[in-house]
Fold this protein.
Amino acid sequence: MRRFSILIVVALSALACAETEPTKPGQARNCEELIKIGRNSAELVLDQIDEKEFEEMQEEEVKAVINLINDLSQKEKFLTRSEELNCSEQELEKAACLAYQGLSQKARGDITREYLRPYFEACS
């Protein structure tokens, strides 16, 4: 019984000490993790937007979608963390170009294409 108890304590300690994968910009330990979190954030934005074309939307709808994008994308938090990690703009663009591949398939209209434009301009 004692052996079993020791095994459980060791297993729980290992789980408690295991590094969890960061999910927020402030948790990124390096520039690569920041890019991965950014891609996840971009996917969240694309999944949350009820896509319509600009000409089909009322002004209030456009403002609401822009506010939603700003809230979900956490742009300021990413900028702050990239400065804290000393990530160069070139390093971020190069890594993002590779990490963000495939997102264009999720763009379903004007809004999401415009949202993704800066990411893909970095790949040009």
Summary: The two ends are 63 Å apart (CA to CA). The longest helix spans residues 31-48.
